[in-house]
Amino acid sequence: MAVTLKQIAELAGVSRGTVDRALYDRGRVNPEVAAHIKQIAAELGYQPNRAGRALALAKNPIRIGVIIQSVETPFIQLVLEGVHAAADELGEMGVQVMIRQIQSIDIPAVQRTMDELVEAGCGGIALLPAESSALRIKIRRLHEERQLPIVTFNSDIADTPRLCFVGLNNRLSGQTAAGLMHAIVHRPGPVLAITGHKDKRAMQERANGFNEEIRTAYPSLTALPTEYCYDDAARAYDITRRAASHYSSLAGILICTNGQDGVCRALAERGLTGKIPVIGYDLTPDNCNNLRSGRVDFLLGQDSFSQGYRPIMLLFDYLFTGKAPESEYVYTDIVIKTRYLV
Amino acid sequence: MAVTLKQIAELAGVSRGTVDRALYDRGRVNPEVAAHIKQIAAELGYQPNRAGRALALAKNPIRIGVIIQSVETPFIQLVLEGVHAAADELGEMGVQVMIRQIQSIDIPAVQRTMDELVEAGCGGIALLPAESSALRIKIRRLHEERQLPIVTFNSDIADTPRLCFVGLNNRLSGQTAAGLMHAIVHRPGPVLAITGHKDKRAMQERANGFNEEIRTAYPSLTALPTEYCYDDAARAYDITRRAASHYSSLAGILICTNGQDGVCRALAERGLTGKIPVIGYDLTPDNCNNLRSGRVDFLLGQDSFSQGYRPIMLLFDYLFTGKAPESEYVYTDIVIKTRYLV
DNA sequence: TTGAAAGCGGTACCAT
DNA sequence: ATGGTACCGCTTTCAA
């Protein structure tokens, strides 16, 4: 049987309340008594019982806010599954998870929502943000004025006093893609990385990691300059068509973002499906279909479930036990999927 | 705020105790009253509070037994990490997880330990077994005589009234390996699967899945007859040496089990490292080193952490909420690792 | 500075 | 068949 506050209280000859105040430094306890109590607790290996604590906290329940942008995209839908799983799980412990979904990127809406959630008594906020100096300032202010713990996820706002970031190591994922590409390409030639926006850091990182790794580690391949499809299948189609006709020896394509269907269509029309390897990102339903049908060779997943689940759990741990994440960067697994695994 | 028994009791004009008996069919309650109570609960979307239940159950705490064989192997050490994580987590909820480690395969010891754990009041047992009719009978008896829920993990005992099996889909992992092999092999030729014991079903399945998939899906490759190294690096070394000299066009090797170092050594001695692709299993420290250094191209992991963690959690869910796993087979993820990811 | 007590949600036992 | 009550471990408030 695990040791309880009551047992410590009896051994120390004080009341449970005093033990509680001593162990958690809540003040109003004689320093010597406190030291004695802490010693006993340490000797007995006291571990607080979560159920007991959760129940006691139910009087003023922990509230956690979640803000997600771009909810209309297939990938974010996957992230939402993790969010809801965490919300359900914590709900059974009496924790309230307040989820706010925002269409596309809408910084003013995010700012308003953050205020609303703080007002509603949220002790922490999980935020799927976007590059924005306004948000950077907002996070800093909430941290300074209210010590509000904030976890960014999926996309980060660096140099911010957030508790941590949960998401993909994009550069490493690009390097991984380079390794895969080299493994499956059977002849020398140019390889092309297509990514989303020039000003989206995460997308750039994927392509950069890929290109640099190709250059430094795989000299039989040459990395063409990155192309941008702006998350648009039609543009990806055009880019692919042009590249395939311009470089007759085109050896492989990495598509870092939405637009995968365009790439596949362009290759199919020229009878190049299966001849020019394609590596893509994200396990959305459409992408998985491409993988199953052989139009794509590998998909790099970013464990979207964890990206929704863990931020909330990390905030809960922080609010419930005071334990902060070990690192400022909590990277989710880079998962490699083939047609056998989706 | 979540709805509680007390609220339902007030609405129904009865006491908390009656609501409890009604909702959980504990008897001793007027059928009409019970129906009314259940209706109210359904309308309000009542979800029991886990913390409350856990605390109430602390009077006669849930005990879960865990039996693990072959603890001396590197792979099982990884599984143990998951076991301990689950034990720690549940320990904070007042659940007692009793872990029994057994060296190598020792069926009599397993039988004794099962008796001991049942005697000690375990409400369920997670078991890492081995092919054995004695264990099959034991599981059946414990099920029939005491309705004891048992979860097998890592290796299964089929046709048994166990709650479920948690582990790898070995056949699918072999097929996945075949797909990878075909993707990275650049020329026609024979490929060789080396596995452990003839009488270990799981190991056979991996090799069979590989060979069959090669035969049916990848005619440019030919699957050589499976070789057996009995988990021994020296034998794997011999097998590899012989195969490499006998088949000058040997195109790839799949090593399904321990002995990977022997394969790598044999290839290195003949200057074939990187020339003949190698795919291996399990993310043990040694294997990860082989991957990092380029002696192995892919490792198939079997999410060893989950293999230790989930059986215990599934038993807990069953004992705590009565919810059984959705399927008799709970497959853990097949993870593909390259040198970038270990 | 300390203790006593109430209460969180659910379970179980004992009266009635 | 039903209600009342004690209790699980912890937090918090109120008295002393």
Task: Please give a handful of descriptors for the protein shown.
seven-stranded mixed sheet; 13 strands; DNA-binding; alpha/beta; 48% helix; homodimer; six-stranded parallel sheet
Q: How many β-strand stretches of chain A? A: 13
**How do the SSEs of chain A run, as a string of H and E?**
HHHHEHEHEHEEHEHEEHEHEHEHEE
- Give the overall form of chain A: elongated
**Structural class label of chain A:** alpha/beta
| Main sheet specs of chain A | 7 strands, mixed
Provide an overview of this structure.
2 copies of one chain form a homodimer. In chain A, strand 10 (278-281), helix 12 (285-292) and strand 11 (298-301) form a beta-alpha-beta unit. Chain A is 48% helix and 16% strand. The first copy, chain A, has helices at 5-12, 16-23, 31-44, 50-57, 74-91, 107-119, 133-146, 170-184, 201-217, 233-246, 260-269, 285-292, 304-321; strands spanning 63-68, 96-101, 124-128, 150-153, 164-167, 189-195, 221-223, 227-228, 252-255, 278-281, 298-301, 329-331, 335-337. The model of chain A has no long low-confidence stretch (mean pLDDT 96). By secondary structure, chain A is of the alpha/beta class. The A-B interface holds A 1-2, 47-52, 54-55, 58, 61, 91-94, 96, 172, 175-176, 179-180, 183-184, 186, 297, 333-341 and B 1-2, 47-52, 54-55, 58, 61, 91-94, 96, 172, 175-176, 179-180, 183-184, 186, 297, 333-341. Chain B binds a DNA duplex (16 and 16 nucleotides) through helix 2 and helix 4.
